[in-house]
Specification:
With about 220 residues, the chain is of the alpha+beta class. It folds into two domains: about 1-55; about 60-225, no CATH class. The protein is built from seven helices and four strands; from the N terminus they run H-H-H-E-H-E-E-H-H-E-H. The protein has helices at about 1-50, 60-85, 90-115, 130-145, 175, 185-195, 220-225; strands at about 115-120, 150-155, 160-165, 210-215. Helix 2 runs antiparallel to helix 3. The protein is elongated and about 75 Å long.
Amino acid sequence: MEPIFVEQQNLITMRLSSVPHLLLLVFLTLACNEQGTNQRNNKAFQEELKSRELKRATAAEISNAAYQQGARIADVAESLISETLRSNDSTMALLVHYKDAILAISDSLTQKEDIQVQRIASQYNAPNTMEGMILDAYLYNIEQGLRVEDNIQVVEDEYFLYTRPILLSENTCLRCHGEVGKDLLEADEIYLKNKHPDIQMGHKQGDFMGMWSIRLSRKIVIRAL
């Protein structure tokens, strides 16, 4: 029986002696797996950081990007309003849908993109200080026979203010702003004076009517680069 006992004891000893090697193998396997996981996680983390990182750009590039964004918004707004004016026959319907179109443009952009869009003129929708300065500059240029062009200004380092002069360019606009007896009926004049006293009449094609004021968040501009 003794040889059997010795053999079993030797077998147990051999098995016990192999435990540290097995533990070492398991540790190395787990370490390798953990290292691979860490590498994958680190790569994903770096990619996420990269995606969140604000792109580097010069002040001139950012300003130009803000100008281009403002111009695109003004183009879309003018196109929508032009379509609205052409699709309404009566002066009453024209005014209602015209104001609804401006509100829809402003509300949708303000809620989604932190962008404010307004039509500014001296006789209504009183401008803030910077808008007032730009509006006065446009009016001065008009009086002097100089060109009026789109403009971009920085506001408190956090926003850009894009402005575009509004010139009376469509015959449809004359139905409210034109000359009585020539472009609009006397009945329309009475209606406008009673219901919309802020509307100025007696204008002609090419007259300066105000400006678009579009305020863009600096973060929005940089993110779009």
